[in-house]
Amino acid sequence: MSAAAEDAAAAEGGSGGGSSGAGSSEGGARRRFDDKGLVARTSLILWHTHQNDVGAVRKLLEEDAALVNARDYDSRTPLHVAALHGWHDVAECLVANGADVNAQDRWQNTPLADAEGAKRQPMIELLKEHGGLTYGKTGSHFEPKTIPPPLTNKADWEINPLELDFTKATVIGKGSFGEILKANWRGTPIAVKRILPSLSDDRLVIQDFKHEVNLLIKLRHPNVVQFLGAVTETKPLMLITEFLRGGDLHQYLKDKGALNPLTAVNFALDIARGMAYLHNEPNVVIHRDLKPRNILLVNSAANHLKVGDFGLSKIIKAQHANDVYKMTGETGSYRYMAPEVFKHRKYDKKVDIFSFAMILYEMLEGDSPFSNYEPYEAAKYVADGHRPVFRKNHTTELKDLVELCWSGDISLRPSFLEILKRLEKLKEHYSHENHWHLFQ
User: Fold this and answer.
1) Contact 243, 262 (CB under 8 A)
2) Which residues pair with residue 241 across a beta bridge?
3) Residues 391 and 254 reside in one and the same domain
4) Is the domain of 212 the same as that of 302?
5) What is the edge-to-edge ordering of all strands in the sheet holding 164-174?
6) Long-range contacts of 10-13 (CB under 8 A, 24+ apart)
7) Are residues 277 and 375 in the same domain?
8) Which terminus in the chain has less CB density within 10 A, N or C?
């Protein structure tokens, strides 16, 4: 049983007493475990659809037919994803398994609306053949609206600052640029990155802010923090994302210490799924500041993680998977920084793989890498060829994965897709081991 499930069990059954309390505990843990499994399976079918892996999609549907209409946080189904990318075989598989061809996402768009907008002609014909409609309740966003939008001549993500409610706002983060607040928008809790008024006219600050907005509007994945909108036409400049109640991984590890291997692997899977999406060709997003503070927990049950904070990210059009980009300089947080970045050498997306290894080490050991060093000194020590030492007993496969990911030779570091395959095998191992412990 995961740590989150055990916490849930204790909370549900701690005061019941006797056998009824134990039953409540087991039921609570089981519900949490089931919820966690649902989130994981939803992420998987959306991911495999995005990767055009019809075999994996078919296998998931054989295991759970209801996944055919699974929805992400934007209420988009696997068929929306397949339609947008033109993955014909995957779409046929989904339709054959009962996919709702007229499911509507958060913007009331059907899969056919997405296919038409992306000019996927074979997909358009397939969806129409099965009764697909272009319009949702308010019409496709690829067609003229009958009612003009309230904010004329603005992008559809531009938010009217008067709609933001700061009456009960709380500060959840600070930086040199400004602060991050928990506020409300149309009755929904949100996170607002607000630029300091004194910096609102700074050309570089405005440039960085617009870069982050332009990057976020392109991203949509269950393991990436969801962008909701921005205030760009009035001051202060503000960037709005979903608010995740579980806080960040840094605080979680500070409170919990070392995680059991199964929990660490499950956390690593969520991080790796989000990063595999970001590293997808041809538009590669290099995070460049992957660290526990930038990984957020969806809720207090800690059963779903998302990658966030793309202030230092770069989007690169790469022709080949192993292209080395002409970017140098000390970008990101020292403690999790790849040696090639610290040394001001050319680097590629493998810098994120290195940071991932340091995070996985911290989850397994309970301490940040080289916690006895100041961050800059830790980065320098790593750049000199040193790596953290494992003090706890871990399987050879798990240690090998971490050591491969933080290799000084970037060509040896695996891709996040390869990491996912290794983590899935490790999860099977630890799940089986955990299963037997429950019955001993």
Assistant:
1) no
2) 191, 227
3) yes
4) no
5) 164-174, 178-185, 188-195, 238-242, 227-231
6) none
7) yes
8) C
Question: Is 193 annotated as ligand-binding?
Answer: yes
Question: What's the pLDDT at 74?
Answer: 75
Residue 420: its pLDDT value, please? 97
Does residue 264 share a domain with residue 234?
no
In a domain, 407, yes or no: yes
Q: Which of 217, 240, 263 is the last residue of a domain?
A: 240
Catalytic annotation, pick one of 72, 270, 289, 309: 289
Please list, in sequence order, all residues whose beta carbon lies within 8 angstroms of the beta carbon of residue 432, skipping any fewer than 6 positions away: none
What pLDDT is recorded for position 39? 65
84 & 205 share domain: no
| 367 pLDDT more than 90 | yes
Residue range 276-298: mean pLDDT, rounded: 88
pLDDT the model gives residue 217 = 86
The answer, yes or no, to whether residue 360 has pLDDT greater than 60, is yes
Instruction: Provide the CATH number for the domain around residue 384.
Output: 1.10.510.10
The verdict on whether 289 is a catalytic residue reads yes
Residue 19 lies in a domain: no
CA 410 remoteness from chain centre: 24
Angle at 259 (CA atoms; ends 255, 261), nearest 5 degrees = 175
pLDDT at 2: 36
Q: Of 183, 205, 240, at which residue does a domain stop?
A: 240
Query: pLDDT at position 35, please?
Result: 52
- Give strand pairing partners of 220: none
Q: Which is higher by pLDDT, 355 or 219?
A: 355
The length of the chain in residues reads: 440
Domain span including residue 41: 35-128
- The two tokens of residue 144 are 């003229």
Q: Find where tokens 């140098």 sit.
A: 328
Ramachandran angles phi, psi of 261, nearest 5°:
-55, -40
Q: Let me know whether 342 and 377 are in one domain.
A: yes
Q: How many domains does the chain have?
A: 3
Rounded to an integer, the average pLDDT of 5-21 is 35
